[in-house]
Every structure is written in structure tokens, then in C-alpha cells.
Amino acid sequence: MKAIDPHIHMVSRTTDDYLKLAVSGIHTVSEPAFWAGFDRSSADSFRDYFFHLTVTEPARAARFGIKHYCWIGLNSKESENLQLAEDVLAIMPEFLDRPTALGIGEVGLNKNSRNEIKILEKQLALAVDRNELLLIHTPHLEDKLKGTRIIMDMILSEPRIKPERVLIDHAEEHTIREIKDNGFWFGLTLYPNSKGSPERAIDAVEIYGTDRICINSSADWSVSDPLSVLKCANEMRRRGHPDDAINKVFYDNPKAFLSQCPKFSAA
Amino acid sequence: MTPHYRQLNATEILDLYFIENRARLLDIASFLDRIDRYEGSDEAKADFRYQALVNAAKLLHNSDTGRTVAIQNSFSDPSTEPLESAIGLKAVGAWDGGKQ
User: Fold this and answer.
1) Interchain pair A242, B78: CB under 8 A
2) Residues of chain A below pLDDT 50
3) N or C: which end of chain B has fewer CB within 10 A?
4) How far apart are CA A211 and CA A205, in angstroms?
């Protein structure tokens, strides 16, 4: 089958992983800007990272016939440093103009602090000014419910942002209903130890339906699996769901969301 | 036209997932036994994370509302005010009652 992984951090993966994606049927990926595992010391580090996302990685992916798109943004973990955040915000437009940049992401909250909220407000304002799609990171674990609600309140209070142009990612069972009821797309992340499993993701598909859901690996430098999207599709198949529903969740849905950016075309 | 797929019934779901979930339950039991066995057990069992896990396990008996959502909510910070600062803080998996 063909699938799109709408959230994968290929800068952290090996070239062998590109080959695995290609031979397994994932020929289109999108890569949000995220935290590197440590706090960077200056905006110059982000300039290099955004270059990596918009130039180096698409070229590396193309060698395997994979289309690589990206998102530009300042992750919430590094938003606590306001001066760094302002410096990064200043260089973002240059990279958002690049041909494979789909919008602003992954931006959101981490521990739900005042500075995180301040910088998210600025990135939402930038999205409004440029009419960019938004890919939203929600906090981990015990902070997710509170953070997801704060983020949704912030976005819904800005009438120029259409919820159907926003994907709220890392949703889990206790946040899906509210996200969907507010008109947003939602993402489920498959992580072997700390986030959702294929079984729980397909439970969510069965409970909440196949509309406005995107399932991703978020594979990065930590314990993660770049083929988890296809393993999840297989979980849906073995429960007896029809092929058209499986294709909708794993190909048509991410294609529909990402295609709202005119730069995107799926392989 | 008859569809070429067929949705499973509940017994088939039980057949499909029983063994692996039995193993997961034993992993949790073994984890709690390990805490009992090691030095400092009383201190660990007083930790908010241990208490949150034990309380969440009780929610497995509740079939009236969704167990998964109830357990997720039981681990979650119920407050609404932003933190003054996130410096030095990280998510640990259970709400500490606002002590951070």
C-alpha cells in the first residue's frame, strides 16, 4: 500500500531508513522543525537547521524517490529563552518562502508556561500574516490536556485562523474529542514506549471515525520506528477494515490536509 | 454486493489480543513487586507517580465510561493557569498536585 508519514524527523534518521520507507510504500514525508535533544545556543544554529530541512534533506530523500517536505518553527522547549526566540522568529520568513516548506510547525506548548504562550502567540500571528498552515505540538504526558485546551483557546480566539488549516498533533484519547469538536485536524503519534500504539490508534479510528485524522511515526533520535505508520495500517487491516478506509486514513487524509498548501503534491 | 472484508466480533478480539495483554498485566505486576523488593520501598510507594499508577489501575474496573480516557484524565494536570516558568521542568507522566 501507499502511505504518507506527515510527521517524521528524517534529519535524525539514517540513509538506510530512507530505503526502508521507499521499499515499504512511504514515498512522501513531511518533517516539522523540532527540539534537537538539547537547547541550541543561538539563532545561527537554527539557520543551519532550517537549511538542513529545506535543502539537504529533500536532496537526500530524492535519491530514494521520496518527496520530502518540511515545516518551519520554533519548538516550545526553546521558547523559554525569549531573546533566542525573537532571533529565531526573525529568520523564519526566509525559510518559509522555500519551495518545500509547508507552513509553521511544530509549534505549541511543552510545560504550559507564560513564555511558551507568548512565543506561540507570535508564531500564530506570523501564520495569520502569511496565511500559513499550522502544525501544532501538544505537551507530553500529564501536561497534554491542559496544554491542548490552552492552545485551542488561543487559536479559536483568532478568527483569521481556520481550524481546518490546523493539525493538532500528539493527540491522545482524552484530547481527541475536544480537538475534533472544534473543527481541527488531529494527529496520533506512534511511539514504541511512551506514546500511542498501533492498537490504540486504530481504537481511536473506530471510536472517532476516519475524518480529519492523520497518523504519524514522529520517528526521531529517540526510541521510535519509521515504519510504524505501515504497522498501524496493518493493524487496521487485520481487524477487518476495508481497504478504502485504510487508504483514507494513511494516504488520502494526510494528502488532503497537506494539499491545502499549494507547494505540496503527493508521490 | 458482499464486501470482501469482515469486521471482527468481540470474541475474535479477545482471541487476537488476550495473550499479549496478559503479558502486559504481568509486566505491571512485576514492576510493582520489584518496588516492594528493593531498598527504599516505602519512600517509592509514597511517591505521587506510584500513587497515580495504583489509582489508575483501579479505573480498569470501571466499564461504565471509557477506561482509557478515565486513566488519561487521572494522570493529567487539571489546573488552567499557565506556569510562571518552565525552566528545569519536564513531564514525568503524572501530575504532582502542583508542587513543581
Assistant:
1) no
2) none
3) N
4) 9
Task: Tell me whether residues A143 and B92 touch, CB distance under 8 A.
Answer: no
Confidence of residue B6 (pLDDT cuts 50, 70, 90): confident
- The string of DSSP codes covering A44-110 is HHHHHHHHIIIIIHHHHHHTTT-EEEEEE---GGGGGSHHHHHHHHHHHHHHHTSTTEEEEEEEE-S
Return the C-alpha cell found at A215: 497518523
Residue A127 near residue A103 (C-beta atoms within 8 A): yes
The x, y and z cell numbers of residue A246, run together, are: 485504510
Q: Would you report the helix, strand and coil content of chain A in percent, each value rounded to 5? A: 50, 15, 30
Question: Chain A within 8 Å of B5 (Cβ-Cβ)?
Answer: yes
Q: B67 and chain A: CB distance < 8 Å anywhere?
A: no
Nearest to A135 by CA among A187, A84, A183, A196: A187
Place of cell 481556520: A162
C-alpha cell at A254: 494526510
Nearest to B86 among A110, A142, A203 (CB): A110
State whether B92 and A141 contact (CB < 8 Å).
Answer: yes
How far apart are alpha carbons A136 and A105 in whole angstroms? 6
Mutate to test the interface with A, among B1, B2, B4, B5 (most CBs of A within 10 A): B5
CA distances from A221 to A14, A102, A216 (A): 10, 23, 15
Local confidence band at B1 (pLDDT 50, 70, 90 cut-offs):
very low
Would the CB atoms of A145 and B69 count as touching at under 8 Å?
Answer: no
Q: What angle do CA A60, A234, A167 make, to 5 degrees?
A: 60
Per-residue confidence (pLDDT) for residue A193, from 0 to 100: 79
Helix orientation angle between A228-238 and A198-208, rounded to the nearest 10 degrees = 60
Question: What are phi and psi for residue A68, nearest 5 degrees?
Answer: -115, 120
Cα–Cα dist B53/B75, whole Å? 8
> Taking Cα atoms as reference points, which of A63, A47, A74 lies closest to residue A10?
A63
Taking residue A112's Cβ as centre, other Cβ atoms within 10 Å add up to 26
Rounded to 5°, the CA angle B4-B9-B14 comes to 125
